[in-house]
């Protein structure tokens, strides 16, 4: 086992040496050597056996150090409360917090370290050698860690590197529970054709060594343990597209319109460095999606609204966007056979109090306690949602100089907080919501995160809605300061999203083929009102606007053609125009007239089905009650009357020439009849006179 561990650490040496995820806390004064503790087992102080430490030591200075030894240390006085634990986690890494173990066999002799050199270590320390044991020590949480001592070129020997963490000592048979919420969140942006932007960034993130790749592996490592996943479904849709070579938006069953793929056709603005998507990247995307969806089908899933919306802003300015986001999320989860509980969980943990009225009943509202520990974490709201205050202290991670949210540091902080909380008798589980952009780090596998949390006094449970009728209703305030309100997205982004939603509705009503246009384009629209958009509101707004312009151009291929001047002789007649479907998809479209005079009426063309590329002539019945010139606009419309496409605008001249001719003819006819009658009468009279 020790040999296998050494091999694993050696394999990770290049990654560990250069990884920012395991770098020293930048707020702390740097030491010449960096001690990376990547494995410590067990997670809680055992009654017998050994405590094993493993990791690497790197000389990050420009000087050589000789006779370097790595000594474990442990405090002899426990941390008794969670407040004390929080203070300890924020303490100066240089603070002396424990007794260093210096007897032979208790430390590792590393020898000399040249500048830039990294070595591995493994120390198996018998529990009986520790200053505190389960038999003699007081229950609580203790400091534990490693000190690197070495000698510089001046012969001075001192501590030149350290790693610190916590270890709980638990006594008694009382058990406690905790719920771990693992977020699957990432900003999704798409170009005007609907392709995922920045495929190189995505490919790097989805690789086994990338943030999302590590996160997927971490989730899978939970196995049958009851981890809770918090998923933005737009991330799943984005990865699904990436594994299919990032196709553009499809309008239906036919081939999508041919537009150059940025991953295949580099340009001055879209280089390969931004848009890489190689076969290995496709395989990584496929593997990641399979891993996460498989885990989601067997774990409790809290489903965020599609694109992780800015709930506080939308609840006040455009609540219908929240409903749309929830609807799209349900569609994606349903397509993947994932049973998800609708959830609202702002990445920063803040929510405007009035937003609760706009959130669907029976949703899970997951907020942060912002470091103010609460005795009870689970509540019901007055508007019938489950309200949970996640524990901000436990999620903040371990002490420096180690990266606080490194998998091992986070594990030890959670188990230590759980041990101290169990002594208070607080109801329900300790709820820990990991940071929104959490990266398990390159050595997460060595931490044995879930395995080491399997103890006889701590149970991992899913975070689900409360079925306990005694769960109280939360009547306190939801803190929401003015600076949080200023962070909300403004009306410009909301307007951009709404504009594309309107365009989407028109296009969706126009097309007859089987498609996912409504879902896909609405999802792109929601990118403008995502929490991620707060970082760059203008850019995301412009991108959504570009998509809207592209879709409007697509609608413009449905046209009404004709002349720009038409004369209508008489009071009624027909107008002949040509309706053109310039799309490669079948559509249902009608024509709606708009006339500039109330004295002219033109019959609408009822919606008719048209094949791809079809042209048809429409004859519209027209009536006019006066002479004059009127402007007419004939607009293509969907079945529900939404204007689309390219209208025909022309001038219509109406005249009464036809009526005048008929009057003249009628008058002439009457005159002729009168003249004939007079001639007949005169002839009859003359005849009678001759006879007489």
From TrEMBL:
Keywords, alphabetical: Membrane, Signal, Transmembrane, Transmembrane helix
Chain ranges passing through the membrane: 660-677
Coiled-coil spans in chain: none
Native source species: Nocardioides marmoriginsengisoli
Signal sequence region: 1-23
Protein name: Glycoprotein
Alphabetized InterPro entries for the sequence: DUF6049 (IPR046112)
Keyword Membrane attributed: yes
Pfam families: DUF6049
Region (Disordered): 246-275
